[in-house]
Design goal:
heterodimer, A: alpha+beta, eleven-stranded mixed beta sheet, about 55% helix, B: alpha/beta, four-stranded antiparallel beta sheet, 7 helices
Chain lengths: ~900, ~260
């Protein structure tokens, strides 16, 4: 058949006759194709290409790290939250507790007109049953305390000689190990505090009488309030072992029995002899191991406690005798659960985002495989093997390295969480959960590897040359992302950025989503716009030095790759700057709030006011606090008055220049000015009213004021009431009848301050530290959320560096060819290295600047909405994340130098003749 | 269009080198073309411009003949070869391989056609072979991918190796063969299973003259199997060894015979 005949046939076929040729290819069976050597040997093939293995192992490791980090992080954070809550509580506060309060049953004998004991408490039975029930439920063997009720009901005063003194009685397993014994004789009986011994004039060996029953004094111990309270007694402050600020006297003495038998005998004899309705509180505490207590373990302990109650026929409700007697573990567990739930909201989507980004790297590794295996891929494709077959081959080759990478990533995630925190303790189930999510990630990763490898292979051989750019590549899709970000911001304006759930601050998910969308959209849009300057840049670069010209040429010759790389590098920088900006701002704001609450870095509250001494002046400033004072007259609005020492306050008080329009030194110098016309210079702090007071009523005195400053915030602000600050010297003795506490504010740690004050005989009521206040304030969920975002940004940075290396590897051959040609044209090795440095520096420098600018731009509309505790001043204080910015810049420089060095080295290593022969 | 001077030799008789079932029914001279191009146009588009690669190219490729597509760089040789190898489609015109109209086929159909009807030989010998397989396994793989089991005729592995002078290399991997041997083995892989056409992109460009001659001899020895060989080349020896010539310049046919 000639062409002419054939053409005629074609024309005929279009009009009438059916086409003479097939429009479908002939089919032949391909049974068992995938048992052929390229597939059968595939699992071992990858090992012939170490670079591919390395890329897949690294990509899979990063993916596994991202997927498994969420469950590990949540577990770690809940354990750390539990640890911090435990650290801020008394050591025995979480111990499962059984409280049994028993009283002698009293009957009134009408014939004799007296009350008689009808039935005594069966203490022996309780002592037998409770430990058995506790250990039977899985709890450790309990320790026991016995005490008379707080009210001292039914317990008459101790009598020695002519002296009568109310006395409280206590027994606790091991309690005597936690007192400072001053004198002791052998035998059982009661140890009495030094204050009690002094009042009753007793010594060891003497006996006192309680309800007509003699009790032998076997020792004297140092008053517990004379020194910092040992941690054992932390839960027993209701026994009156610390001074009462409003009592004006020392607390009643505490008698500690040496053994429970003596206590029981004494109690029964008292009940029998006195015929009173005497009552005694028994308490068993199971000393669980709180070191490394996880949420799962805490829940298990609660189940054991409930089982104990069930065995004893008790209900949790009848265990409530007083909050201090009740185990705080349920409350702590609830609090930790809230923190965990608060974290889960932002952490899971962030982890998912990180995993998606890591999948991009996995996809790039699949593409890299297709590039490295191009020869075989092209051969098989030319023989009719489709993308499916090639994808299967890629999957078979890369699964083993991907599994290895996943295991490494899982181990890396565990190590990172253990090392960087929040804490090193994990729930036993957390590693298993993390492994499961990592396995799911692996499955998705292998699928994507195969898919990308198959598509890349198809594109390499089957994609039409010079095909028109698809409309999808031209449309600026990122505008949609920016619009979504804008909508999220708008929605966020109508909601709270930080919500309180169960007292725990939790981050609104929009606070995470909106900026991330904004960063993603604007990063892509920015680099799309930057592509428009590439062409003029290339034109101008012809007059520039050779290395610079080469660098610009390389960038502009592959504009899509260059700007994609730029966007990819800008994203992690932007995320680091955003998350660090928000974290730093929130952290500093929380520090400022606690600093304002405490007054300084640490503060001790006492009822004792001492004279200024050089030793005190070295560590603290003294502030008198008068609460419930009144502005104007006694019926005026309530106000807090602080009487400060203007000389020392600026040295020790927490201060930020944004608190006032004037400096603290200036305010203090105005405060220290001598009174004029009987008026005391004062600072007035009140958000609500702009009116300046003219006098304040403190106790029985009215003090005329002259307001010399109105700072917005001042240290020592505890309540929403207005505050008046005056000089203590100027106030003088115009404080009669006022309730006063004296606070010692310091910039040192609490231990140092406590030591100095104890030496000066100051009795310590409360110690505040920033850490203590912050933990109680439940800000952990917020700070950790942003901490996790920062970690994700670092992960994205890693992903990008991985992408950069893959890019360099993929372009290695063309770089080598370019280098060889440049050398022939006289370019020195130094010049080439310089051009590589310039190329990498330009891309990474531009990415850092764009990323930092976008990140900071995202911080500005958001930071003001993150007020973790609106009840405490000050509001959000914008803080520049200097460390993060410097770190990002340093990392960009290091990566630029390393990448340029690597690319230069690999280009120089190649044989120029080989390169020139093979060409691109 | 210039007249062909060097080619248009007598069509050789069908030898008995391969069994009758591998020959073209009715003899080579009367057989329907193994491939046909008619009024083939191809245009490549970049951001700024359109490059016309082929304009109205017509050609028949008879079975059992060697046709060389010649022309300077940018003449459209590679574009036509890609279309004939079923990797690409013409923008306009008609292309038939065996009994199948390529112009109407999608990627999947072209892939299937590539598997059964087209053999391809790349310029670089190493690109044609799987590096970790010996010669016998190379051929077996090629046969299995074409959907045939090694057997008599063009599926006879031993016979092909013998015809191409590669019997002594049957258990050698490509890395242990010379460039010429690699390329001959590639030709064997391309013809195994008897596709309609074998497309070879400058198959001798990377070989020394002796090796190139042996490759051309190998192709010549397989000519009477009924497979149509379509080569692209600048090499005068290749043109000399072929039965038909298609010379292209700027995408147009300037010589065809």
């Amino acid at each position: 058949m000639t062409i002419l005949e054939f053409a005629e046939q074609r024309v005929r076929s279009r009009t009438s006759a059916p086409p003479p040729v097939r429009t479908r290819p002939p089919r032949r069976s391909r049974g068992g194709t995938f048992l052929l050597p390229p597939w059968r040997r595939a699992p071992l093939m990858a090992f012939r290409h170490p670079a591919v293995i390395l890329a897949v192992v690294a990509a899979a490791a990063i993916l596994a790290c991202a997927t498994s980090s969420a469950s590990l992080f949540l577990s770690s954070s809940s354990s750390e939250a539990m640890r911090r809550i435990l650290a801020a509580s008394c050591p025995d506060a979480p111990y499962p507790t059984v409280n049994i309060s028993q009283a002698a049953k009293i009957r009134i004998d009408a014939s004799r007109g007296v009350r008689v004991v009808e039935k005594l408490p069966d203490l022996a039975r309780a002592e037998r049953n409770v430990p058995r029930a506790m250990t039977g439920s899985g709890l450790p063997a309990p320790i026991r305390t016995i005490q008379t009720p707080i009210s001292g009901q039914g317990i008459p005063p101790a009598i020695h000689g002519q002296t009568r003194q109310p006395i409280r009685m206590f027994y606790g397993d091991g309690a005597l190990d936690h007192v400072d014994t001053m004198s002791r004789i052998s035998g059982n009986g009661m140890m009495i505090s030094s204050a009690g011994a002094e009042i009753l004039s007793v010594r060891p060996g003497d006996s006192i009488t309680l309800a007509g029953v003699p009790v032998r004094i076997v020792g004297v111990y140092k008053n517990l309030f004379a020194a910092p309270l040992p941690s054992y007694w932390c839960s027993y402050t209701d026994l009156g072992i610390v001074p009462c600020p409003t009592c004006g006297a020392d607390p009643p003495p505490l008698g500690i029995f040496t053994d429970p038998g003596t206590f029981d005998q004494f109690f029964l004899r008292v009940a029998q002899a006195a015929g009173t309705d005497a009552r005694v509180d028994y308490r068993w505490l199971a000393p669980i191991d709180t070191d490394g207590l996880t949420l799962t373990r805490a829940r298990a302990v609660l189940r054991e406690q409930r089982e104990t109650y069930r065995r004893l026929g008790l209900t949790p409700a009848n265990q409530v005798i007083g909050s201090s007697n009740q185990s705080l573990l349920p409350k702590m567990t609830d609090q930790v659960t809230h923190i965990r739930d608060g974290l889960r909201g932002p952490v899971v989507p962030i982890a998912l985002g990180g995993a998606l980004l890591a999948l991009l790297l996995v996809g790039a590794a699949g593409s890299y495989w297709a590039d490295r295996r191009a020869r075989e891929v092209r051969l098989l494709s030319s023989r009719g093997v489709g993308p499916g077959g090639l994808a299967l081959k890629a999957a078979l080759e890369l699964t083993l390295p991907a599994v290895v990478g996943t295991v490494l990533g899982w181990l890396l995630a565990r190590w990172l969480v253990a090392t960087l925190g929040p804490g090193s303790v994990l729930d036993p189930s957390a590693p298993g959960d993390a492994a499961l999510t990592a396995a799911l990630g692996l499955a998705a990763g292998v699928l994507l590897l195969a898919l990308v490898a198959g598509l890349r292979a198809r594109n390499a051989t089957e994609r039409p040359v010079g095909a028109r750019r698809s409309w999808a590549a031209i449309v600026p899709w990122e505008v949609l992302i920016i619009v979504a970000a804008g909508l999220s911001f708008l929605r966020l304006r109508g909601e709270r950025a930080v919500v309180l759930d169960g007292g725990v601050a939790q981050v609104n998910l929009l606070l995470m989503a909106a900026p991330l969308l904004f960063l993603l959209g604007t990063a892509v849009l920015t680099v799309r716009l930057l592509t428009t300057v590439l062409r003029p840049l290339r034109r101008h670069s012809q007059r520039w030095p050779v290395p610079l010209y080469l660098a610009v040429s390389r960038i502009t010759s592959a504009p899509v790759v260059a700007v994609t790389l730029l966007a990819a590098l800008a994203m992690p920088v932007a995320m680091v700057v955003y998350s660090a900006g928000i974290t730093k701002t929130s952290q500093y704001t929380v520090d400022a709030k606690t600093g304002v609450f405490i007054g300084g870095r640490a503060s001790i509250v006492s009822v004792d006011r001492i004279r200024r001494t050089p030793a005190l002046d070295r560590v603290a400033t003294m502030v008198d606090r008068y609460e419930r004072a009144h502005l104007g007259s006694a019926t005026g609005p309530e106000v807090t008055v602080l009487a400060v020492d203007p000389d020392t306050l600026p040295r020790f008080a927490f201060w930020d220049d944004r608190f006032a329009d004037r400096s603290l030194d200036d305010l203090m110098s105005r405060l220290a000015a001598p009174p004029r016309n009987g008026t005391v210079p004062a600072l007035f702090i009140d958000d609500a009213s702009g009116a300046r007071p003219t006098s304040v009523r403190i106790g029985d005195s009215t003090v005329p004021l002259r307001v010399v400053g109105t700072p917005r915030v001042f240290p020592g602000d505890h309540s929403p009431d207005p505050m008046v600050v005056v000089s203590a010297a100027a106030l003088g003795d115009r404080n009669a009848g006022a309730s006063r506490f004296t606070e010692y504010w310091s910039d040192r740690d609490a231990g140092t301050l406590s030591t100095v004050l104890t030496r000066s005989k100051v009795r310590i009521l409360v110690t505040y530290t920033q850490q203590k206040v912050q933990d109680v304030a439940n800000f952990l969920a917020v700070t950790w959320s942003f901490g996790y975002l920062e970690a994700l940004a670092a992960l994205v940075g890693l992903i990008t560096i991985g992408g950069l290396l893959l890019y360099l590897e993929t372009r290695a051959r063309s770089r080598a060819a370019s280098f060889a040609l440049s050398q022939r044209m006289g370019l020195s090795r130094r010049g080439h290295l310089l051009s590589m440095l310039t190329e990498m520096g330009m891309v990474l420098g531009a990415a850092s600047v764009v990323g930092a600018a976008l990140g900071w731009l995202a911080v500005l509309p958001v930071y003001g909405r993150i007020d973790l505790d609106t009840s405490r001043p000050p509001g959000p204080l914008l803080t520049v994340p200097v460390t993060a910015l410097a770190g990002a810049a340093l990392a960009a420089c290091l990566v630029a130098v390393a990448a340029a060095g690597y690319a230069h080295h690999s280009a120089g290593r190649t044989d120029p003749s080989e390169v020139l022969r093979l060409g691109e | 269009m210039k007249a062909c001077e060097q080619v248009n030799r007598e069509v050789p008789a069908v030898s008995d080198q391969f069994p009758i079932d591998d020959r073209v029914p009715g003899g080579l001279g009367t057989a329907a073309p193994a491939a046909v191009c008619y009024d083939v146009h191809k245009v490549y588009r970049t951001l700024d411009e359109e490059v016309v690669a082929l304009t109205g190219v017509d050609k028949e490729f008879p079975p059992g003949r060697i046709t060389t597509i010649a022309g300077p760089s940018g003449s459209g040789k590679s574009s036509l070869l890609r279309i004939l190898a079923c990797v690409d489609r013409p923008d306009r015109g008609y292309v038939r391989i065996g009994q199948t109209d390529v112009s109407e086929l999608g990627a999947r159909g072209r892939r299937a056609l590539r598997r059964t009807e087209v053999g391809y030989v790349f310029q670089n010998p190493m690109d044609n072979l799987v590096e970790y397989l010996d010669a016998v396994d190379q051929l077996k793989l090629a046969a299995r991918l074409r959907g045939v089991r090694p057997g008599p005729g063009l599926a006879d592995v031993d016979r092909l190796l013998e015809v191409l002078g590669l019997q002594h290399r049957r258990s050698h991997r490509p890395v242990h063969m010379s460039g010429g041997e690699q390329q001959r083995l590639a030709v064997a892989c391309a013809v195994i299973g008897r596709p309609s056409i074998v497309v070879a992109d400058e198959p001798t460009a990377e070989l020394d003259s002796a090796s190139a001659d042996r490759v051309l001899d190998a192709i010549g020895s397989l000519r009477d199997s009924g497979v149509a060989f379509i080569l692209s080349s600048h090499d005068a020896r290749v043109v000399e060894a072929t039965d038909h010539l298609l010379r292209l310049e700027r995408g147009r046919t300037v010589e065809s015979c």
